Amino acid sequence: IVPLAVPLMAGPSSIALILLTASKYPSSIGQIALAVTGAWLVSSVILLLSPALLRVMGTKGTRALERLMGLLLILVAVQMFLDGVSTYSASSVP
Fold first, then answer.
1. Alpha helices per DSSP H over 25-49
2. Phi and psi torsions of 56, nearest 5°
3. How far apart are the first and last CA of the chain?
4. Dihedral sign (CA 22, 28, 32, 37)
5. CA 35/CA 13 separation, integer angstroms
6. What is the pTM of this model?
7. 27-44 burial by CB neighbour count: b if 16+ within 10 A, else e?
8. Deepest in the core among 10, 29, 56, 63, taking most CB within 10 A?
9. What DSSP state is assigned to residue 8?
10. DSSP 8-state class, residue 4
């Protein structure tokens, strides 16, 4: 099942996180809403100021930031893969 419209600032995983957290902790809906609103505001400010940030960083700074973010993405992916392999190997041992 695919939603008909996905909000611009929140992807499917963040919507699922909000739904799961709200179902697990129904008394903290206000705190969840505050956290989501804060994250949305920070993302909005970064997106609105991105042309100015790119001018300040320049071509070399932008390229360095891209490489750093790529490295972090690879690190997270490898860690998730290793966690999955260790969980699978621990569960398949009789």
1. 29-48
2. -70, -45
3. 36
4. positive
5. 15
6. 0.54
7. eeeeebeeebeeeeeeee
8. 10
9. S
10. S
